[in-house]
Design goal:
single chain; Rossmann fold; Helicase, Ruva Protein, domain 3; 3-stranded mixed beta sheet; 14 strands; about 40% helix
Length: about 525
């Protein structure tokens, strides 16, 4: 039996001792939920408690996911959507900016809609709305994506022309059901009709400011030019079935630029929002729909975006929004302050950590741990419905997906210069296999080249030294600026990148180890 001893000690000595306190994890009751009514994500890092996500204990079902390239964002999204479908029968609509999800959606038996590759959306479709309301949405979209708000007369002319196009097509401006005298649905007008109305007004010569009219027509022609009229033709997409068809991916990678992609994304969010309001509240458990926005900074950053409106209202209608980004500052503060759950994967840049810490109010200890996260590891912040007497931010050992996460490594050993007092701070950087493939495709490599590089990692036990990797990519014709961007995104600092390219240049010339005088990071 132990012996209890008493002794005197000073306050100074007591102050140096560590007393037991609860580690930063919520109690098990907040982490373990009914498996038939929640989504399993993984195990906590400290106590290894199974974490089952459900929005019933938090403020809303909306989720933000942030982390650098290769940290496991898309892996989490795919896992979450798959399990939500099993548990609740949740539909998913992915607005896919870069074509990242389309192959997975096809493999999972879902439907892919490819704008710019055969599919079109009529911007003047109503989607169950009144024409008056749809006109306001269209004009707000143009204000977000263009500078039309600086030209009020051009805005007025455009708005009047859209209204006239609806009236010419026999639409009643304040009605949701639009049918002709025989009870048949009326076909909506298009941007071509709006352009024709403005051109006829110009030809009539009665308008006192023809320059304003010409500029309004020119703005509209950006969306009606042959080959770029994706939003000026009748829709090939059934809007009524988008939110009830299981897994659907809207692939925007075939559109020419960010404005076209953002126009498609905003339009779809507007239709979904009206569908959400039209269906109303449901007593059924779980989520009816999750809308995914991945790297959609153009519409996730603007406070007037319909993404913000869905976040504020979605809980009432069993709709959830999932926003993912490398850069947390690309997500509107209005979204960040309203999402119920934030998954923070590996984040390297101090300004991003500052933003997250100030927004979510986690401790310095948690900030340090986030900087050390590996692929698939995460910090989770949850806004619980009740006042929490414990940390609302905790660490996940690893996201447990439907398939094991595949991780590749670039070895950085030997890149420091001892003569300058430098030391190797990291032995390697890691990233997810699928993120590597996505990047290689974006660099213009074909599928054969992508698989060759991926297989080489597998043959080398998933490790390749970074200098050899750079030389290999340049042999495949990848621009040095693209390689630089990739290395920065996976957490390699500028001075190390300069050293990498220096060593690559000298290794290629067979003069490795000699004094380096100048390196160019551009082509």
């Amino acid at each position: 039996m132990g012996k209890l001893t008493f002794w005197e000690t000073s306050n100074r000595q007591l102050g140096k001792r560590n007393f037991f306190v609860r580690p930063p994890e919520p109690p098990e009751d907040f982490l373990i939920n009914d498996p038939t009514n929640s989504v399993f994500v993984g195990y906590t890092k400290i106590f290894h408690v199974p974490f089952y996500w459900t929005y019933q204990k938090i403020t809303n079902p909306h989720i933000a996911v942030v982390g650098i390239t290769g940290s496991g964002k898309s892996y989490f999204v795919k896992t979450f959507l798959t399990r939500a479908s099993y548990v609740w029968g949740t539909n998913a609509f992915i607005i896919d900016w870069a074509g990242e999800y389309k192959d997975w959606v096809r493999q999972a038996g879902g439907k892919v809609i490819s704008l710019g590759k055969g599919s079109t959306i009529n911007l003047l479709d109503l989607g169950g709305m009144k024409p008056n309301d749809r006109i306001k949405q269209i004009m707000r979209t143009f204000e977000i994506l263009t500078d039309i708000s600086r030209y009020p007369e051009q805005k007025r002319l455009s708005e009047q022309a859209i209204e006239k196009a609806y009236r010419n097509a026999k639409f009643r401006m304040n009605a949701t059901v639009q049918k002709d005298t025989l009870g048949r649905p009326i076909k909506p007008p298009t941007l071509y009709d709006v352009q024709r109305i403005l051109e006829e007004q110009l030809e009539a010569g009665t308008y006192e400011f023809p320059a304003e009219l010409e500029n309004a027509i020119y703005r509209l022609k950006n969306f009606t030019r042959e080959g770029e009229d994706y939003f000026a033709q009748q829709s090939t997409i059934n809007l009524d079935k988008l939110t009830t068809s299981g897994l659907v991916c809207l692939d925007l990678s075939g559109l020419p630029d960010e404005v076209f992609r953002a126009l498609a994304g905003l339009s779809m969010l507007q239709f979904i929002k009206e569908k959400m309001r039209g269906e109303g509240w449901s007593a059924e458990k779980g989520l009816k729909l999750v809308v995914v926005l991945d790297e959609a900074w153009k519409i996730a950053k603007d406070d007037n975006s319909d993404a913000v409106m869905i976040v504020r209202e979605g809980r009432k209608y069993n709709f959830g929004l999932l926003v993912a980004s490398q850069n947390p500052t690309d997500i509107s503060e209005a979204i960040f302050s309203n999402v119920g759950t934030t998954f923070i994967l590996r984040v390297k840049f101090e300004r991003f950590l500052d933003y997250l810490q100030n927004t979510l109010n986690f401790s310095d200890y948690m900030r340090t741990e986030i900087r050390k996260l590996g692929v698939g590891q995460a910090a989770v912040n949850m806004a619980f419905q009740t006042t929490a007497q414990f940390s609302e931010t905790f660490l996940l050992d690893k996201i447990v997906g439907e398939e094991p996460i595949q991780e590749f490594f670039l070895d950085l050993i030997g890149l420091a210069d001892p003569s300058l007092g430098e030391v190797d701070m990291a032995k390697s950087v890691s990233f997810e296999k699928e993120d590597l493939k996505k990047r290689l495709r974006s660099f213009g490599l074909n599928e054969m080249n992508v698989e060759e590089i991926s297989n080489l990692f597998q043959k080398k036990n998933r490790h390749i030294d970074v200098v050899s990797y750079v030389i290999m990519l340049e042999r495949y014709g990848v621009a040095r600026s693209n390689i630089t961007s990739f290395l920065k995104d996976v957490g390699v600092d500028d001075s190390t990148i300069v050293n990498i390219f220096s060593k690559a240049d000298f290794k290629r010339l067979g003069v490795e180890g000699r004094e380096i005088t100048q390196v160019s990071l551009d082509d």
